[in-house]
Amino acid sequence: MDENSSMDDEVISSLFEQGVCLSFSPFSFDQYLHISFKHSHACKRMCRNAFYIYKDYICFKLKSEKYQGIITYFCNLKQVHEKNILGKLGQGYKYAIGMLNEGRIGIAAQMLGLAQGCFDHAVPYTRQRVQFGKRIFDFQGMQHQIANVATQLEAARLLTYNAARLKEAGRPFIKEACMAKYYAAEVATVTTSKCIEWMGGVGFTKDYPIEKFYRDCKIGTIYEGTSNIQLSTIAKFLDQEYDS
């Protein structure tokens, strides 16, 4: 916010209301980004603003929820000041979307790593487990499934690397990031499901990490934009490309 500007605390508190906190590993960070959604006379429209909130503020409290990586947070509006506003008024949505575009590459990598880890645990099991006198890996039907999943993992990896390459080169990357995130999340879902099938009943037990991979992969199709949002964004860019 401009150092020369001046807004009273009542306006600041009003702008701060009804928002979301954007942060991964919430208990590990010292500061958080809060995006508010509020119709304000200061903005003369629906105002989306970004605020920096520091964890050591007396007004800021974190509460852990049952779900992995999710928190509830509370903040006393009287202690949110103008200096906490990030950037310009009304630009919070722009900042948040910019983070999401980059973040989708990270989520693609996360889902890829999860799927690869699951695959790396399951395949050795199929090479050791013996049924009907031979390894279950040696059955042609099993080999085809494993080869299919391995191919999808490699395709997801290349999509993710390409999106990261474009981002690092300063080139347009939003469509490619959406493709990588969408495909990696879908591949993670397929991979973890197949790995449980390959391992049979023990795949559901906590003796192996497969069941955890299976649970954890679902969030990849939801956060940083659902899979349907990724498809809509990809289609929008394709429409623009073929219109030019």
Automatic annotation (TrEMBL):
InterPro entries hit by this protein: Acyl-CoA_DH_CS, AcylCo_DH-like_C, AcylCo_DH/oxidase_C
UniProt keywords, alphabetically: Flavoprotein, Oxidoreductase
Positions in coiled-coil regions: none
Source domain of life: Eukaryota
Biological or metabolic pathway of the protein: Lipid metabolism
Reactions accelerated catalytically: (2S)-2-methylbutanoyl-CoA + oxidized [electron-transfer flavoprotein] + H(+) = (2E)-2-methylbut-2-enoyl-CoA + reduced [electron-transfer flavoprotein]; valproyl-CoA + oxidized [electron-transfer flavoprotein] + H(+) = (2E)-2-propylpent-2-enoyl-CoA + reduced [electron-transfer flavoprotein]; (2R)-2-methylbutanoyl-CoA + oxidized [electron-transfer flavoprotein] + H(+) = ethylacryloyl-CoA + reduced [electron-transfer flavoprotein]; 2-methylpropanoyl-CoA + oxidized [electron-transfer flavoprotein] + H(+) = 2-methylpropenoyl-CoA + reduced [electron-transfer flavoprotein]
Molecular functions per Gene Ontology: acyl-CoA dehydrogenase activity
PROSITE patterns hit by this protein: ACYL_COA_DH_2
The protein, known as: Short/branched chain specific acyl-CoA dehydrogenase, mitochondrial
Species assigned in the record: Astyanax mexicanus (Blind cave fish)
